[in-house]
Structure formats: C-alpha cells, structure tokens
Records
---
Amino acid sequence: MSDLTNLTVAQIRDGHRAGDFSAVEVAEAFNANVAGAKVLNAFIVETPDHAIAAAKQADADRAAGTLKPLSGVPIGMKDLFATHGVQTTAASHMLEGFVPRYESTVSQKLWDAGCGMLGKLNLDQFAMGSSNETSYFGNVISPWRRKDGGNAALAPGGSSGGSSAAIAARLCPAATGTDTGGSIRQPAAFTGISGIKPTYGRCSRWGIVAFASSLDQAGPMARDVRDCAILLETMAGFDPKDATSLDLPVPNWEAALSSDLKGKKVGIPKEYRLDGIDPDIDAMWDAGIAMLKDAGAEVVEISLPHTKYALPAYYIIAPAEASSNLARYDGVRYGLRDLPQGAGLQDMYAATRAEGFGPEVKRRIMIGTYVLSAGFYDAYYTQAQKVRTLIARDFNTAFESCDVILAPTAPSAAFGLGEKTADPLSMYLNDVFAVPASLAGLPAMSVPAALNREGLPLGLQIIGKAFDEQGVLNAGLAIEERAGFTARAEKWW
Amino acid sequence: MSEYRIKGETGEWEVVIGLEVHAQVTSNAKLFSGAATAFGAEPNTQVSLVDAAMPGMLPVPNRECIRQAVRTGMAIDAVINKWSRFDRKNYFYADLPQGYQISQLYHPLVGEGSLTIEADEKAGIPEAKRVGIERIHVEQDAGKLMHDQHPSMSYVDLNRSGVALMEIVSRPDMRSPAEAGAYVRKLRSILRYVGSCDGNMEEGSMRADVNVSVRRPGDEFGTRTETKNVNSVRFVMAVIESEAKRQIELIESGGTVVQETRLYDPDRNETRSMRSKEDAHDYRYFPDPDLLPLELDDAFLEECRASLPELPDAKRARYIAAGISAYNADVLTAEVEAARWFDALLEAGAKPVAAANWVTSELFGALNRLGKDISESPVSPVQAAELLGLVADGTISGTIAKQVFEKMLETGDGAAAIVEREGLKQTSDTGAIEAEIARVLAANADKVEQYKAGKEALFGFFVGQTMKAMQGKANPQVVNELLRKALGRA
C-alpha cells in the first residue's frame, strides 16, 4: 500500500468510505509521522489517542453505515482554538497549562463531522507574528530548504506556521488556521500548500483566543483547493454565540468546484506591483495571469488606490483591539499568576504580564494602548478606521469591473529564521499583500504556483467578493490545475 | 422665598445638581451572557464563561435588556436611537474580568428626554419642574470584591459581573436637595411602572452618582464634584447638603473646588476625596469589535411602545380629572402597586373621589398598622368596592363603614354579609329619627337656646347626639335634614 500520509483529505475520505484502508491505519500513519518530526517543532501538544479514538469511531461508523462527512480524516488544530480537556496556550507562557472546559465552535464542528485530532499546532504567540518565531514554545522549522547547498533553517510563515509546516511535511493532511492579517495565506505560500480565509463572519470566532476581533477569521489549510473547500464547508456556519457571525446558509463549495472561468473577469491591481520586488514574484504573478486566461477568464487592470495605507492602518487597528482583548490575562482567574511576596493587585498585574507575554505581544499591546489613549485616538485609531473604510470602498469599486482579484500572497519566499527578528518593520512588511483583504473582510486564498530560483515555493493570492468563496476556490482550482505544483520538501528530519 | 439658597459667610449660594442613576435592568439573564441575575445568590454561582472572560469567549447582546432600556426611554419621552453602538471602557481591576466594561460612550441607545417632578410646597418645591435627561445608555456591571474573607487576600464574587445596567444621566437642572430627592423618587416610580428596574436601592438595583457644584445665583456653573454610588434618596439629599456646604466653605476661605470623584461616608455624613481629575483613568474607549452596531427596526420599537403601561403622569392627570385631589393623586400614583390596586378598585365600580379618600386614609392606615404592603392587603379591590358601594347607596354610614372594614380585615368576609349579620344597615326611617331628635333637643334645651342665638357650630353636636342615640345607624343626610327642620331652620 502506498503511504497513506501522501493522501489528500478527499482521498482519505473517499478511500476510507470505499474500504481501501481503515481509519485507524490512517491515524497510525500520521501519528508516526508526527512522532518522527519533533525537530520541526510543529506541535505544542500531540494527541495521538484523540486521533486513534476518532479513527476507531470512523471504522465502527463505516461498519454500521453511519459515516459522517469527514469520518476517518485526522487533522491538526492550531493551538489558538480552545479544545476541551486539551491544553490551549496560544503559544504563550501566559496560558501554559491552561486546559479549557469548553470546545471552540469550529473545532466542535470538525469533531462532529468525524475528524480526529493529531495535536495542537504551534503558532506565533497570540497569533502575532509572520514567522512563528514569537512562540513561547520555540519556533517551528519549515520542512523546506533552499537549493543552495546550505541548510539554513527557514520560517514556515506565521502565525499559522505549525499548521503550514505540518501539512507540508505530511504530519497531517490538513489543519485549521486563523487569519488576522495574512496568518493563513502567508504560511501557506511559504510552504507550498493551500489555505483560505473566508469572508469575515463565515466561521464562528467563539472559543478562538482573540487577537483582533474585527479581523480574526478561521479557515482551513490543506494540500489542495478541493480539501480547502471540503474543510471550509464543515468549519463555516452561523453561530448564535458570535454576534459577528454571518447568518447565511453554507454553500456546497466542493460540489460546485469548477475551473472553467469563461465569462469571469480577473482584476490585476496595479498598486501591488512594487518597485524592487523579487523578480521571481513578478514572474509567478505573470504566469498566474496567463493560467487564468487559459481557463477562459478575461484579465483587466484594476486600481486599489489606498493600498499603501493598508499596512499602517492594520498595525493601528489590530494592536488597538489586541491591547484590549489581552487585558483579561491578568493572573486573577486562570493562566499564569506571578504574585511576588507581599505584592498588591497592581504588582501582581505587572509581574504576571511582564512574565507571561513575549516581546512581540508586549510591543503590540503598547502600540495599541498608545493609539487608543486620550489625545492620540483621533490621530491614529479614528484615522485608521477611515482608511479601512476607503480600502473596503476600493475593493467595492474594483469588483464592479471584475469577479476576483489575482495578486501575490507575499512579497518574498520564505526567509531564514532570525533574518527579520531584529527589525519588526521588515517583518510587518511581509503582510503587505495580505492585509488589505483582511481589512475589507473579504475571502482570500493562497495556492502554490511556482518555485523560485532557490527552489522555494511561492503562492498566488485570489481575493473575492464578500460571500463569494466559490469564485475564489474556482480561480484557485484553475491555477492549481495549470501550475502542476507537485514539489514537496525533501525529507531531512 | 421659594428658591433654595445656602447662606455663606459672604452671601447666598445656589447649588447645582446633576444625577447619574445606575439602574439594574430587570431581566433573567445578563447583558451579554445567559447567566442568571438573582440577588443574594452564593458567590460565583451565577457566572458564565463569558462573565469570567475565559479565552475566546464572546458577548452576545440580550434582546430583553435592550427592550427594557428602550421602553424606559419611551417612558421619559426620549429620543430612541435606532442605531447605537457598544464601546469598551478599558481599565484593570480585579472585579472586571475582561479588563474592560462594555458600555456606550459615543452612541447611546436613548437620547434626550425628561421627567417632571411635582410641586411639593412643604418640601420647598413651589411648582412642578421639568428635569432634562441627557441620555440613557446600557452597560455591564462589574463584580464585587470581598475583603473580609481572608487575612491577607481579597476575594472576588463575579455574580454581578455582566449584569445589565441603565445609566440614566440627568441635565444639571436640579437646584435643591428636595428637587434631587423628588427626581430620584419620580425616576424610581417610572422605572417600576415600566417594569425595567425593581428600584430596590437597598439591594443596589438603583444607585446614583451625585454631581454637585455651587455658584452665586445667576453666575456661570462652578466646578463640580462627583460622589459615587449613593444608594438611598436620603443619602442623595445628605450628600448634596454636605458637599455644597463643604464647597462653599472652601471657596469662602479662599480655596478652589477641584473636579474629583468623592465617596460618601454615611456614618460621618461627609464626602471624602477618592481621586482627582489628574489621576483619573484614561479609559481608552473604542467601539467593541466583538459586537455589531445595534440597529432597531420599527416593529421592535412599536412592540416596545405598545407594551408600555399608563405612566404616573398620565395616571395622575386622569385621577385629577375625575375630581381626586392633587395630593391624593400624588399619593396614589407614587407606587405602581398602589396605583394598580386603586385602578382595580375603580374598575370594580367604586366612585373615584370617595375611593381615593378611603384608600389613602382607611386602607393605608390599616396596612400601616398591620405592617403589610398593598400587594398583601387582606381586603381585595373587589371587596373594597362592595364596601364603598354600601356607603354610596346609603346602606351604611361612613362611621359604620369603618366598623365593617375592621370586621372585613379580621374575618375576610364580604361587606354586605357583615352588615347583614351584624344588623348595621342604616335607617332612613324618619319617624324613628324624629323621635330621637325630639329627645335630644329636649335634653339639651340650653344648647338649643345658644344655637338659636347664633352659635351655629352646635349643629354638629346635635347631629352627633342623634347619631349616637341611633347607634350610628341613621342616615346622616336624613338626620341633617330633620334636625334643621326641628331647629326651625329648614
């Protein structure tokens, strides 16, 4: 039998259903890969028993004729989702050892659909970062290496870096991610996999440790577009426990997948052509345009004039919300408490938060606190909200003349660990193409499109109209079929 | 002089008062979580994951709390904002699990409205006065710290955490402690009519932040102080008196009032500084990104309006139009339970004026004696209507009615049955009455002389003697008529 860990979600689902293999065999194969890849540091907690239990149930369900949509499919869970009885840390010291007595809506939906959990995946601390280097539990190492004879350790992207590395290394066939300003798309691009951030409100945020509430959105990461469609169907849906949840039916995205783009228009935003950008990125983009033309689409140039203000606005709004969202980690009720001898309440707050948060989290809390303070609020926060409105308007105008937008996911391929840690600004710049769709709440996905000259994967981003995940997935599928991206990281771990 | 003035060393001062009343919304569940809200529960037994601010928990607005605040706004004739929004007020404290309170700074649910306090000559309010209400916004309550449970630690009870409050902000329109007291009582009355707050100040369901400043009459407003969490009408009035006095003494001795938050110490009847404006928190308000703006549709507003009961002012006007005195109308409408009881009495057929007199004197007197609320009255409105009906149709006199009422309270029997059983029916038998009158006049010939000489006040004496001789059962009107005739003045 071929290696079960090379199968996609759809193949596992269908093969299990057909009786080609048992779910337990699948779970065991992935558990073995997880156990053998500790050096990648993709998992904070491994849960092989959870995966086996779900697999046994799946096999029993198959025998009983009561299969569920994702019976037999084991997945990885980003450690930002609260999981009942399993430590949930957001990769922070603050929540180290925190075991929720509740299950996030999205993870519950996956378990209800028959999935098993291979473990809790590493990430940037509180999802703040683009390289997975801010995790309290150490950085993830990408399975990819440059074809330059060296073996520099590369970033798997962030914040969903555990998810991207684990999928690329065949430690799980798919995983959950969350995307606040590119945290699904950029790591997908860095590791040669697919990932979609749906329209804001598609997936419930209930039970996901909050970073920036108005931007946070869960989504699937997987090896291909079909798997993203399958998982998103399970993860999405109205949740009365989330006031920002979309009260809309969940379309049957998988069934409606079609790479025939005849009659569709693809917008190419001229503001995304950056001076001095890696020529491999531009080349990939041009190749992508050709692929979509080949799929029948008409290509039009569009303008998103406020693009250059998106990143500054994002780095005001997201920290502002984070500074407030993270106030609850105060040592009073759960998580870390640092109570020095004879200390009062204020001392406990200071000691706990100094100890429990890493430098990047502290930086964003301070930025957020600053931009919301009296005297600065209008100059920063109010202004950033105006920019956000203008960016959403840019997209609305652009979508009058096109159906989807095609752009690179990130301005570069994966960078080396430690290369950008000294310069937060250059790290933030990595989100430049991802952030506008987040600010506008639009669905956007990354699909692998090419390898650069160093042999590293590059991703193309498709941005769609609100609620039009189907249009995004279909354009992604058209690229996937034509790019023929079959490269994978050579196993060195 | 009708205006309230405080005499200082250097002349007269006027006090300016504004009140922010926090009223707990009557609702089974908290503002953003499904947890219960009952008073007096064991600590931390009414706390949901949301109230404890566990990671990943989200607030969802409770429709009933919004509905109650809208109905309250309608009851004070306020603008209802169809579009409002929740903001976060950020500060750290151990009783605030999220590290922020969800409130409404920028776009409150309810805008400008007002209420009217009635004239009360005795209290120094010469005429009715309209007090402006700037806004009502909805916000979460915090938990409670307990400092007496452990020698070195404080404990936190989160039962109140997340309970819905309405903050009702008045204009600085009040000018005396009496006006402020009347405002709080009137507001409490309206809230209880509407059913949006139980108004129970002892349990903390209603408490006031009292803003006080002083000025020379006619001058600009002075600098104000805010005394927090005052929990009775009496204390509100006491805070104003003591704080105004403190400010005047301070100014007259060359000092200046600083804008600050103060606390009231009821034991010493004085306020003391809590924190000044300089160390005030920067609350970093911003729109809560977990919540969408609150948009109210016409059907919802219509339902809110249709569900409003008759309010105290309308009820009072109706009573006065029916001939009831303004004083009785005030007494009857102040508490919603009394007003409902009285309306039921009218509905059962009692005549308004007689009923109002009877309720405010006989019934209230009896309840007071028995130590019972009107809701626990042993006599029902229908039973009372029967009693008053017997007086109205001349079956019994007012004096006999008092006896019958006592028997009703004792036995729970109906008025007619008691009258029948005890033979208390009054007589209009002119022959019998005339006979008694003749005896009374004969026995008091001297007084008859005095009466005829002009001492008309003695008429009442003859009525009394006759009634006494008739054992109270004579129809007083008939007695009056016959006496006048007998005394030659008919």
---
Amino acid sequence: MSANRIVIDPITRIEGHLRIEAEIQNGKVTDAYSAGTMVRLLEEILKGRDPRDAWAFVGRVCGVCTTVHSLASVRSVEDALDIVVPPNAEMVRSIMFVAQYLHDHVVHFYHLHAMDWVDVVNALKADPKKTSELAQSISNWPKSSPGYFSDLQKRIGRFVESGQLGIFANGYWGHPAYKLPPEVNLIGLAHYLEALEWQKEIVRIHAIFGGKNPHPNFLVGGMACAIGLDDASGINAERLAYVDQLLREAKTFVEQVYIPDLLAIASFYKDWGAIGGGLGSYLAYGDLPVNGYRDESSFKFPSGVILNKDISKVYDVDLRKDEEVQEFVQRSWYKYEGGDDKGLHPWKGETVLNYTGPKPPYEHLNVEEKYSFLKTPRWNGNAVEVGPLARVLVGYARGREDFKEVVDAALSKLEVPVTALFSTLGRTAARGLETALVAGWAREFYDSLITNLKNGDDRMAATEKFDPKTWPAQAQGVGHTEAPRGALAHWIVIQDQKIDNYQLVVPTTWNASPRDPEGKSSAYEAALKDTPVANPEQPVEILRTIHSFDPCMACAVHLYDEEGQHLSRVQALG
Amino acid sequence: MDNHRIGETNADILVLGIGNLLMGDEGVGVHFADSLLKEFLPPDVEVLDGGTAGIQLMEAIESHRHVLIVDATLDGLPAGTIREIKPRFSSDYPSAMSTHDIGLKDLISGLTLLGRQPEIFLFVVSIDKVQPLEIGLSPEVNAALGGLKAKVFHRIEKIRSGNSGE
C-alpha cells in the first residue's frame, strides 16, 4: 500500500445514485425494486431564471450527457417562442448529436458493458496466433497480427500481477457466467484499449462546433459558432474537412471493430436473447431531422410507441397532450398539491420534496411505500422502455428499410428469431446497430451543411426573438431529443420573461423509476424478473441487464434472499 | 468563460478543475478553474473546467507533462482544508471521482496501460456536505480559494524548477 493512500467518501457528481434491491429464490430474481437515492432539484434551480440561460445549467446535470440536455433545453425555449432555427444550425446540432452517439455507445460497449461479458484475466490464456486468425476472419481491421496480440498480452500480464489497476481488480473474473474463449476475450481487451484511444478523436467535433468540451456552448435560436468556408478565424473549410475526416474514421471503427466484436461476443451468449426482456413496451420521441426539427416526417429516428411486443402496430406520440405523458409520485419522495394518486403532465409538474424513507445508512428501503427520488412517468398509463432497443424497434416496426437491413442482417448472422430482440442481448445489440446507422447518416448531415454553405447561406442563428421584449407574457414549450440512453424531453413554462416551471423527464426516469399507483413496475424492475443469479455474492447477471440499459447513474446493487437476509452489497459503476 | 484550446498551445502544465456546479461546494474545482480563467495566465499553463466529465478528459490529460487536478472531498476534515496528494495508482484517488460510465480513475488506469500517464498532482478541498440546489460556494470553502491558488502556483514553480518529484 502506498503511503499516500487515502480513503474518501463518495461524492456524487451525477444525477443520482441508483440502488437495486433484488429478491432471489432458487437461483432466480423473483422481485426487484429500483430506487434513485439522491435527490435532484434542478427544476427548482431554474425557476425565475432567464430561459435563454437554461441550457447552461441543464448541461451540468451530467458530464456525459451535456449536449443532449442543452439541446432539449434550447428546443423547448424555441418551441415556446416559435423560433425557427436556420438549416446550418440544425445540421450542426445533428452532427454534434452523431458525435455524441458514436462516443457514448462505443465507450459504453467497451468501457462499461464489455466487462460483463469479457473476462479480461482469462484473455491472458489466449494463443496470440489463434487470436490473430480469429480477428482476421471477422474483420479487415489492420491491428490483428500475432505479434500485436502477443505484445499486448505481455504488457497486460504485468499489470494484472501488480494488482494496481481497478479494471483488473474489481471484476468477477472466472465466474461461470463468462462463456467466451480466451481468444475472444483477448480481442475484447485489445479493443478496450483501442476504443480508449479512438474516443478522444470523435469528441473534438464538440469542441469545434461548441467552442469547448466538456460542456460545449448552445444558443437559443441556433448555434453559437461562426461558420463560413472562407472564414479565417471561425469554422472554415479546413476545420470542416477535419470534421469530415473524424466522421469517416468513426464509421470505419464502428464497422470494422465495434460491430464484428458485438456479433462475435453475442454468438456465445445467445441464451441472453431470452433473458431480461421486461416490459415489451417501447417509446421513442424520434430525432435527427433532415428537414428541420419541426418536420417530424424527416426524422432519421422515427417516433412512436410499441405495446406488448406487438410490432405490427406503432402508436403516435404527442408530448403536448395532457393525458399522454404524465408523472406519478405515489412511490416517490415528493408530494403533489392535488394528491399523490394523480399523474401530472410536465407543464403542470410539481417538484416538492417529501422524504419519508429511512435515515441513511440503512439496510433496506420500505418498498411498500415511497422508495425513490425518481418520479414515475407513464405514456397513456403504460409503463414503457426507452433507449436504443425502443428506437430500433420503432424504426423496424415503422417499416424503415435502413433499420430492417441492419436488424435482419444481425438476426440472420446470429441465427436467432426477431423475438430475441426483446431481451438483454437485444438491448445491447440494438445499441451497436443504431451506432452503425448513425455513422452512416452522418454523411448526409455533413454534405447538407456544406451544400448550404456553398449556396451562400451562412446564417447560424435566428436572433429576431432573442430580445425578451418581443416575447408574449406567457408561453409554454416542449423540446425533445433522443439521448443515447433514450427519449428525453424538457417542458418549459415562461411567465413575464422568466422560467415559471421547468420539468425534465429523462431516459433513466422512464427506465429506472419506482412502481406506479397501480403497482406496475417500470423497465428495470420488470427486466430483472426471472434473471438467473448463479452466485448472489457475484451477481454479474444482474449487472448485465442493468448495464444493458446504460444507466445514467452510479449503481449500487443490493441482494436479499427470501428471508430478507442481506446477501451481499455490490458497488458497481453504472 | 471559454477554455484555452486544449492541444493548440505548447503548455506543459494543465490545471484541471472538476466538480458539479449544481451541487454547492462540490463544484469548488470548477469555481477555481473559472477564477483562474479570468486572469492572465503564464504561457506554459493551461486551465480547463472539466465539469463532471470523465473519459472525455483524456486528450487534455495526456497532452500535458504535468497535470494538477483540483477537486472536492468529503474526508471529515474541516471545510476549506486543502491537501496536496501525489497519487501513484488509480486506487489512490477519491473513490467516486467518476461519472456514469467511465470516470477519471478508469481513465488514469487506461493511460497507465497505454504507457502515457503524465505526472499528476491532486489538490483536494474538504467540504462538509454535498448541497443540491446550490450554485455558489459556502463562506468556508470560498475563503479557501486564495490558499488553493497559492498552493497550486507553488507546485507550478517547483515543476518549472525541475524539482517536482516527491
């Protein structure tokens, strides 16, 4: 131990802690409760502020999702004030969105989720020559020689022995749920490191268009960057060519590394195509407009709702309708003025704390009463899952050819039926498949921006309504997007030029929320039901399903047996 | 409040403030970075408001020879206490210096694996509690900013004189 070693209590920088309490019987989860144990009162911070500044505050909710919250925020204000954003700004927003997806999904796969499937210690047993043959059989990616894998193995071996590195010390290595041959594990480990190198490239796009990264700049009415092909100091032809190069390299990485790895790993875990499905109902708001945010028919990601695994029918979504999206607090530590049994549309949303839980530290939450700081959103009363699987299923069910092509190719390669999508494996696969789609669409947004600039349109913001004197006394708006983790919307009410109400309904609220007044579970709780758990001390199976949602919180998993005995406490970064 | 453009200067030294601006004293690192960014900085020093980012800070960290990280800590010491730590391994870092998927600690581990870890100094400021709903600093922590700056620049002087190793 180093003399400088220190012990420090956790400090949460993020939206909240996630806690799962799962009951286990005969090696399976029989019931699960998902709780957000840290309060978030961003809504109250925003009240009374200038609506044009809201994007900067919401951008600080999370270090990873800054762009998506800022985007939803400026869209909500633009919606309220009826501001039409110029095409250049729409394209820049879409290119930043694409960069966010490429970064977030690759990092999620290799740096969080892969370790649920890839046993990095077992990779040391791999034969470098066989690894090389396998790598070359699934991809043209050049870094695949026996020497490359052999060098990597030697380097990693020294770190594993030293025990100094968290990534090798904290896993459940050797757990029987790990099924990959050593050679596949070694490929996964090699690409863990290559993805680490790669991810720093793609985020440069945020610094180019947003001025800085992390926490790039947004602007109500457009984007805050000067652009012009011949502009010496702003974003000119040279910088745009660099964006083009980064997008091309990202596409190659997704096609030659991420997707082949995903399919190779999935082929050893086909049983997970029948585990972790959960609700079977899905919601997507849609995003990535080709013809402006107001033209929903031009969205690359279509919007819609699928209920009870029936992909023959897709319902339309209207975020303005009072009864469609509602939040409930019957099981959440809040109170509503009109009673906790009713749902409220976010424009009428209330955020008044009412903590009735135990004083920390505690062993159990009282899950019969209120047990979470997350509210419970419902769509027309239905519990729905949001995220990559929802988006891919909605695109597929809407009959979109691009979605059908990638989904059917993956299903046929893995030799599994379409019903295998309703699962933990399906969720993880959908994230990769939509990354491939997004990488392909990037070209259209880029070309469209260049064409527009060449045609002499250099407008980047609509400024005629930037002055609050031009605003009506009262206005309300909603701004939505598809964050990497799922459907995200911000609802704003503006009164006398100030924010009167502001409500965020974030993807992890849809997925990780507590039960509704009818006792129905949300997505996490439903997905954990019937999950096998071979060893409650090492619940890697539970982590697989929770991580497949890409939770936007640090995650503490607690397990209890049928007598309510505390079995283990597992800290996992989620 | 714009950051200096990372990677476009030749600065050897990075001062990286991290924390959540929406959680009161927890955001002390960001407040400190913002205060430095308002001043005239020597050409060999860059300052970055790292916010709550983790892995996204890789390029900023690996492109400097010396990185001075400023962060808050709940270590039970009186609020406003400043300590300088020279972490050797990722396990020497505060336990939850991380965001949702891969945090600063994992990033440091990754840089070690890639053989590209710069010399890192960690300045931690003790805080009493994490206050959601607060954007400003408490009087105790605010009063520590001056001492923090003195300590950080003392370290920068030592780095410049080639005497930074412990």
